[in-house]
């Protein structure tokens, strides 16, 4: 008898179609979204880091660079394009791509991974970025709700994400959705001489039970 894999490893080993049929909400299935201001209709597609095309991955990277490179540059992490591109190919990463047609470039995306943090089964939101054409239309809230529902159906304890302290708008957005500072988030440190080191990012989480 083949030994059963732990929850996270077993789900991450599933083919994309099986994962979608088991864990996407029944009313999703390549769901459509219409921007309330422009009336433009988009589709939301699920991919893995293996099934996403190089062109779509490049478009996603460009969205990160456009919206966040300056924030990365000003942080202790710095902006490292090759490192970010490598991260975007992590084997267990999945993507929700927001596109006008199957062949058009994504104008927004959310990436996430089912993984472990501090020994706990979690869903970690890696990135969420939109082109200007998709902003201020409620799509961020919709994608976060979608990925949280995936986490609930899988049965993980919580959803987690990292946000830069300088990105006040993003932090306010997540807090309105019920996210709070996680116990795993780095704390201030006081060095010899009384110098206080304040982390430039926080880890937020939301229980999914």
Topology:
Layout: H1 7-12, H2 16-23, E1 32-34, E2 41-48, H3 54-73, H4 81-87, E3 93-99, E4 108-117, E5 120-130, H5 139-154, E6 158-164, H6 168-176, E7 180-181, E8 189-190, E9 196-197, E10 201-207
Parallel strand pairs: 5-6
Antiparallel strand pairs: 1-2, 2-3, 3-4, 4-5, 6-10, 7-10, 8-9
Detailed description of the structure:
An eight-stranded mixed β-sheet has the order 1-2-3-4-5-6-10-7, sandwiched between helices. The chain has helices at residues 7-12, 16-23, 54-73, 81-87, 139-154, 168-176, and strands at residues 32-34, 41-48, 93-99, 108-117, 120-130, 158-164, 180-181, 189-190, 196-197, 201-207. The protein is of the alpha+beta class and 209 residues long. The mean pLDDT is 92. 26% of the residues are buried.
Rounded to the nearest angstrom, the distance between the terminal CA atoms is 32 Å
Total number of beta strands: 10
Overall, the morphology is globular
- Proportion of beta-strand residues: 25-35%
CA-atom Rg in angstroms: 18 Å
The H-and-E topology, N to C, reads as: HHEEHHEEEHEHEEEE
Going by helix content, strand content and strand pairing, the class is alpha+beta
Instruction: Summarize the biggest pleated sheet.
Output: 8 strands, mixed
């Amino acid at each position: 008898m083949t030994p059963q894999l732990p929850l996270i490893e077993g789900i991450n080993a599933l083919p994309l179609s099986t994962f979608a049929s088991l864990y996407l909400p029944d009313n999703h299935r390549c769901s459509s979204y219409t921007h309330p201001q422009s009336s433009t209709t988009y589709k939301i597609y699920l991919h893995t880091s293996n099934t996403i095309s190089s062109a779509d991955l490049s478009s996603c990277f460009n969205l990160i660079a456009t919206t966040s490179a300056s924030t990365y540059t000003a942080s202790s992490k710095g902006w490292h394009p090759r490192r970010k591109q490598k991260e975007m190919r992590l084997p267990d990463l999945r993507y929700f791509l927001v596109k006008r047609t199957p062949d058009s470039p994504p104008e927004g995306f959310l990436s996430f991974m089912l993984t472990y943090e501090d020994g706990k089964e979690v869903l970690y939101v890696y990135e969420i970025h939109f082109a200007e054409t998709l902003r201020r239309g409620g799509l961020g809230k919709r994608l976060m709700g979608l990925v949280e529902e995936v986490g609930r159906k899988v049965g993980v304890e919580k959803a987690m994400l990292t946000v830069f302290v300088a990105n006040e708008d993003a932090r306010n957005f997540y807090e309105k959705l019920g996210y709070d500072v996680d116990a795993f988030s780095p704390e201030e440190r006081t060095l010899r001489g009384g110098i206080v080191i304040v982390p430039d990012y926080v880890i937020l989480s939301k229980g999914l039970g």
